[in-house]
Design goal:
Strand order of the largest sheet: 9-14-11
CATH class of one domain: Mainly Beta
Structural class: mainly beta
CATH architecture of one domain: Sandwich
Strand content: 15-25%
Number of helices: 3
Helix content: under 10%
Distance between the termini: 115 Å
CATH topology of one domain: Immunoglobulin-like
Order of helices and strands: HEEEEEEEEEEHEEEEH
């Protein structure tokens, strides 16, 4: 009876002896090689038991129908592999706790809906490979630093249908120490943001911080800390746009502000382009461009300057190299001022044998001027000179009481062209409300410089 029972169970007992090519089973009770495998009891053998064959299905099947129990339990000394295989084929439905020494929590789930915890840029966790080395980065993914992962694509990229693809916060104080997001690249872009109709990258400062900070730490190189490029063909496109939308009053708020040896530098590479353009169209006291200096020049121009409008100034002069000492001195003259828009013309003429001389004037003379004034001075001899005929048809006539007299003449006229007629200089003007109590030159009236026009209004 025992032999019949042994013949029935011997194939199953031999199958349980091997998990793959070789399996060593350690049990409490001893046995000799060739002894039968006893079910329901502990078996011990110090030899290798091999199970080989050419069956179509598995050579070893283990099934445990009791809930919560395992079908196979392998125990080996610490540090040794409990199982070896000679195939690289994929094992279906294998639920492994560790891969390459990393716990399964160190990897992102490949299944489920696309949320921040399951997918990055639409890629499942199978898109990432674990990296070796120490983890110095403080950003963790599944308990592992981001340096433990290689992304087969961009350095780091996120896509989501939610409002925010990635939110990173640093509570460390300091403008540089506490970094919410850091992008580093040796040859490309550290951080790239792109959009079709909104903002590729947005930096927000909720208190006294900086929304976006760009710094160039190297002592060499000419590339900017922050650069804006715009390839649009639209007329109003901008490489860099700064908008100040605060509700505070005053002028100490800036859309774009630059500080340094050169606070703001503008250069145009286009034909007939503009290096710097300033425009302000709201209010009579608005400034398109404002320059201010208490020690040097508020504005310094090298080249021609054109003003389409009225130029108001406290004083005016020309300055040139002194003709007699050009290397060491300047020569300066003040402007000739007038309450009128006055033009001045002069010249010399000699009367004929009858004592008459006609002085021709430019064709545009009367189209530009009106209200003429005359001055005549004889040269070389005592003689009387008068204006015989006033200006008409762009000329006038001089008569002397002697023939062949040289006469120096001067004529002034008041402009009456369309622009002058529409923009007459008002001789006396009341200061606007914002400038009441201020002075163009407060020191001259014993007042402090803080009362200078432009100082009373904030930052002007």
């Amino acid at each position: 009876m025992y032999s019949r029972y042994a013949r029935r169970v011997r194939p199953a007992l031999l199958g349980a002896a091997a998990a793959a090519l070789a399996l060593v089973v350690s049990t409490a009770s001893g046995a000799k090689p060739g002894s039968p495998f006893r079910l329901g009891r502990s078996n011990s053998i110090n030899k290798t038991t091999a199970l080989t064959g050419k069956t179509k299905g598995p050579q070893l099947k283990l099934a445990n129908k009791k809930a919560g129990s395992t079908a196979l339990d392998l125990k080996v000394p610490a540090g040794q592999a409990p199982l070896t295989v000679n195939s690289s084929g994929k094992v279906a439905n294998l639920n492994a706790d560790q891969l390459d020494g990393l716990d399964s929590t160190g990897f992102l789930r490949a299944t489920g809906t696309a949320t921040d915890s399951s997918k990055l840029e639409g890629h499942a966790s199978s898109y990432f490979l674990p990296a070796t080395g120490t983890a110095a980065d403080s950003i963790k993914l599944g308990g592992h630093p981001i340096s433990d992962f290689y992304l087969l694509g961009d350095a780091f990229s996120l896509t989501t249908n939610a409002d925010t693809a990635l939110s990173a916060t640093s509570t460390s104080p300091g403008p540089i120490v506490g970094v919410g997001v850091k992008g580093v690249s040796d040859h490309g872009w550290g951080v790239l943001g792109s959009t079709l109709d909104s903002r590729g990258v947005v930096g927000l400062a909720l208190s006294d911080g900086v929304g976006v900070l760009g710094e160039h730490f190297s002592g060499a190189g000419v590339l900017p800390a922050v650069a804006g490029l715009n390839s649009s063909n639209e007329a109003s496109a901008a490489g860099v746009l700064g908008v100040e939308e605060g509700s505070a009053t005053g002028f100490d708020r800036y859309g774009v502000r630059g500080t340094g040896p050169t606070g703001v530098y503008g250069k145009s590479n286009a034909t007939d382009g503009n290096g710097v353009v300033g425009e302000s169209n709201d209010g009579t006291g608005a400034y398109g461009v404002e320059g201010k200096s208490t020690s040097g020049y508020a504005g310094y121009f090298i080249g021609n300057v054109n003003v389409s409008g009225t130029l108001s100034k406290t004083a005016g002069s020309f300055r040139i190299d002194h003709p007699l000492d050009p290397a060491h001195k300047y020569l300066q003259h003040s402007f000739v001022e007038s309450p009128d828009m006055m033009d001045v013309y002069n010249g010399n003429v000699t009367t004929d044998d009858q004592g008459y001389a006609t002085v021709p004037l430019p064709r545009w003379f009367q189209a530009l001027n009106k209200d003429f004034r005359y001055q005549l001075t004889t040269i070389g001899q005592f003689a009387q000179a008068i204006v015989d005929q006033e200006i008409a048809n762009n000329h006038f006539t001089i008569q002397t009481d002697k023939p062949n007299v040289k006469v120096s003449w001067q004529v002034t006229g008041i402009r009456h062209d369309p622009y002058a007629n529409d923009h007459r200089i008002q001789v006396e003007v009341r200061k606007p409300r914002a400038e009441q109590g201020t002075y163009v030159y407060p020191q001259g009236y014993g007042k402090p410089r803080s009362l200078e026009v432009g100082e009373k209004t904030p930052s002007r």
